[in-house]
């Protein structure tokens, strides 16, 4: 955009936790940002309110019946919003020529195709949807490079790492920048101190009650198993072009340090802040400038202490499964992600227990086929195979 026209934003997953936080940042800077498109799965009531407040050019719902209802609503409110439905229209708005920036905040594999469409259209992509990158890392990063897209991380850890890296790291690579390693911090989730013998009776409500962050249900369960940290490890490998061995995972229960970069001279740079996703969202939206995000200033007297620990293998088997999958490479991360999505959904539906999540993923990984993942077809095929296998396991398992 030129200096005085607002940046046109497409929000994929507008009704979710990241989507609504993004709209809150936009609300604070109406002169700077304009909502071009909002998309959602099925949350009709919320997207109605969002259309009234933000006047998007397009609104896309996955479901045709709900889209029809939204259509009647925008007509009744005399809004100019064009209502579309179906997954192909997610790709359409994400790659639309009028769009400058795409917030990729759909949860899970469903976010892959529209995020890839944005990359192929050379957009500025604010990436929250880590599953897309985990599935298709090589293909996605190639598309970004080939089509001149800009990729900025929204995940708080990756945004922190990005802030702690020198500007030229993209061209020079981590090693030439004098970097020793990356320290990925994680809170350890709600079961950091829970007795291991009680893990099998953990309920979805307990798993979704994260101590520091208010997030969607899928990522909340991922945080409880620490699969989230595992997916983030894979995400970091692709974003910053490093190996799993160059990443150290550290437990930091207060979630004040969002991650760190360790340099060869002994310096460690950390990015800190209250656990509020509006900080990384505002950072990426305004980059390289800085804007107000509505986040409470960090009060050091109130925090009083920051602590660190090692994640125990017995407590967090999913973390190990993820780093093994990344080391194996090929379609392993895609199969890991698919099995995890099936397992988490089954857990949230009360079909399997908490400890069965990692069992199901492990079994799926050993029983489905390793292959290269250099084409999109191969990635989608791995995703499908692993999903089908994991779904069969769900049917066989008893709580
Ligand atoms: P959420 O469940 O709150 O929201 C998900 C959004 O995606 C909703 O708008 C929903 O309508 C849409 N959606 C769901 N399934 C869809 C489908 N099949 N097709 C199209 N749209 C669909 O999730 P969230 O917590 O906002 O997380 C979104 C993404 O951001 C995830 O990949 C998550 O890992 C990542 N992330 C979230 C946080 C956080 O604090 N919430 C932090 C870091 C990363
Ligand atoms: Mg994170």
UniProtKB/TrEMBL annotation:
NADPH binds at residues 15-18, 42-43, 129, 131, 216. Pathway: Isoprenoid biosynthesis; isopentenyl diphosphate biosynthesis via DXP pathway; isopentenyl diphosphate from 1-deoxy-D-xylulose 5-phosphate: step 1/6. Its EC number is 1.1.1.267. Residues 272-389 form the DXP reductoisomerase C-terminal domain. It catalyses: 2-C-methyl-D-erythritol 4-phosphate + NADP(+) = 1-deoxy-D-xylulose 5-phosphate + NADPH + H(+). Residues 9-137 form the 1-deoxy-D-xylulose 5-phosphate reductoisomerase N-terminal domain. NCBIfam families: Dxr, PRK05447.1-1, PRK12464.1. This is 1-deoxy-D-xylulose 5-phosphate reductoisomerase.
